[in-house]
Amino acid sequence: MTVNITVLAGDYIGPEIMAAGLKVLAAVSEGQNFDYQLHEMPFGGAGIDQTGEPLPAETLQSAKQSDAVLLAAIGGPKWDGVPQTPEHGLLAIRKALNLFANIRPTEISPAMQKYSPIKNTEPVDFVIVRELTSGIYFGKPRETTADYALDTMRYTNEEIERITRVAFDMAMKRRKHVTLVDKANVLDTSKLWRKIVAQIATEYPDVTYDTSYVDAASMKIIASPSQFDVILTENLFGDILSDEAAQTTGSLGTIPSMSRGTDGPSLYEPIHGSAPDIAGKGIADPISMIRSVAMMLTHSFNRADLATEITDGINQTVAAGVVTPDLGGKATTDEMTKTIINHIKESRHSYEPDHV
Ligand code: NAD
Ligand code: IPM
Ligand code: MN
């Protein structure tokens, strides 16, 4: 069987890191009975340049017909002031595929420990479960007049319920601890989240459930990140906290994500943006993209075995200090990617049974 993957390379460093991710995908699937076909489609700024729209109809069609979508990053100064921005395209594809659950893991592996700005004594391994298709990103009314601008934060019971179940189900497979992050001391939407999440928590007696206000949570992510297992939060808070959490690994350029709905293809992308400041220099950190490929192999294609080979390859590479400048190294995107691929190949070679 051949699976179909829609590939959205996007803008600025997007194509650079996508190339790295696809090279690793090709290397890790070689001879492993995993056949795939790539469908490279215009999206974001590249979509605007090629078709006038950030999410061209053919791109959405391809995504809907695929088994998974791989996205690098979109946006940047080139499209400042256009009526439909690359970011509109990103929000539109999330909505159109009903990708309401965005999973953003923060893990500081032993190999990454030396790059972390945090002096941890305990392991850091938590997941942010971010609501992705509602809240202030999508609420109506939304308008700008001569005198004011208006955004609306709105959540329905059902929107909160479905993301809450994702978080608790995930906690059951992890360390059984969910922390709801909100601003329930001020916002009505947060008060509703607290009410609904507390109700659902009673269905999961094995899960420890607690809450934190978002301002304090942002402190705790720095002060004691090991206390978290699953952080459940609304769209905007999840956006902000996940960049903060990412930096505890040493760089925003290391964290992947999965966005999923109830059925249909999931979408995998780094949590960071198109990094216009380093684009074209060949020094973008490919880890976030390569780990997004690994997440795709695990969650869309049931190939955790291949994902583990990728993760091991990354760990060996960073342990050896072959890292890009964001992590303080001198390696280029290409050198890092080649080193990861070499580790994958070498470890396969050394485990090959002897044929006599
Ligand atoms: P950014 O995440 O692109 O960059 C922030 C900083 O982190 C920059 O200094 C950048 O060089 C660095 N960085 C990010 N990824 C890196 C990597 N892989 N390797 C090394 N360094 C890396 O955020 P920004 O500069 O605020 O936004 C730039 C554009 O990206 C904007 O148009 C924004 O809307 C867009 N954006 C897109 C996505 C997405 O496609 N999912 C996500 C976030 C931002
Ligand atoms: C992200 C990005 C997007 C978001 C932007 C580019 C619309 O920051 O994926 O984290 O805010 O969701
Ligand atoms: Mn973001």
TrEMBL record:
Residues 4-340 form the Isopropylmalate dehydrogenase-like domain. It is an enzyme of class 1 (oxidoreductase). InterPro entries: IsoPropMal-DH-like_dom, Isopropylmalate_DH. Its EC number is 1.1.1.85. Keywords: Amino-acid biosynthesis, Branched-chain amino acid biosynthesis, Leucine biosynthesis, Magnesium, Metal-binding, NAD, Oxidoreductase. Belongs to the isocitrate and isopropylmalate dehydrogenases family. This is 3-isopropylmalate dehydrogenase. It comes from Secundilactobacillus hailunensis.
